[in-house]
């Protein structure tokens, strides 16, 4: 499984965020979306404990920059725009914050120190 190249980083709270819906199948263990996300660890794998090796992809709202690359590019050679299952939605950050009762910061939280 490839991941974001880690070359980009969030500098400002985005206007929109990506979220994944229950339609996410995890692409049966080979997520097609994750390689297009430019932010390391922003799209991450959540295993389905009851049905290994299946799982799904979640988006970290503290890392997402709202670039929409995950919904505009599909699996190589598939001629699809974005997720084959339409399981990624872009939502206004204001709406996400209202639903979750959280105000997202511009920058990602600093990693915990040991
Ligand atoms: S491409 Fe779609 S179905 Fe596949 S892992 Fe990503 S969000 Fe889930
Ligand atoms: S919108 Fe951009 S940063 Fe957010 S999950 Fe999609 S590709 Fe990653």
Key attributes of the depicted protein:
114 residues, two-stranded antiparallel sheet, binds iron/sulfur cluster
Report on this structure:
With 114 residues, this protein is of the alpha+beta class. It contains 2 helices and 4 strands, in the order βββαβα. The strands form 2 sheets. Strands 1-4 form a two-stranded antiparallel sheet. Strands 2-3 form a two-stranded antiparallel sheet. It is globular. The structure holds iron/sulfur cluster (2 copies). The site of one iron/sulfur cluster (SF4) has 14 residues, from α1. The site of one iron/sulfur cluster has 14 residues, from β3.
Instruction: Report the principal-axis shape.
Output: globular
Low-confidence stretches: none
Q: What Rg is obtained from the alpha carbons, in whole angstroms?
A: 14 Å
Kindly report the average pLDDT value: 88
Q: What portion of the residues fall into strands of 2 or more residues? A: 15-25%
The number of helical runs is: 2
Largest sheet: spatial strand order: 1-4
Proportion of residues in helical segments: 10-25%
Largest sheet: 2 strands, antiparallel
Write down how many β-strands occur, each being a DSSP E stretch of 2 or more residues. Answer: 4
Head-to-tail CA distance between termini: 28 Å
What ligands does this structure carry?
A: iron/sulfur cluster
Q: How many structural domains does the protein architecture include?
A: 1
The helix/strand class is alpha+beta
Order of helices and strands: EEEHEH
């Amino acid at each position: 499984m490839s991941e974001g190249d880690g070359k980009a980083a969030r500098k400002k709270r985005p206007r929109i965020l990506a979220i994944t819906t229950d339609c996410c199948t995890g692409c049966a263990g080979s997520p097609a979306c994750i390689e297009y996300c430019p932010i390391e660890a922003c799209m991450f794998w959540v295993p389905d404990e009851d049905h290994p090796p299946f799982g799904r992809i979640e988006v970290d709202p503290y890392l997402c920059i709202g670039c929409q690359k995950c919904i505009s590019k599909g699996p190589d050679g598939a001629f699809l725009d974005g997720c084959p299952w339409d399981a990624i939605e872009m939502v206004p950050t204001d709406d996400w914050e209202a639903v979750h009762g959280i105000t997202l910061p511009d920058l990602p939280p600093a990693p915990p120190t040991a």
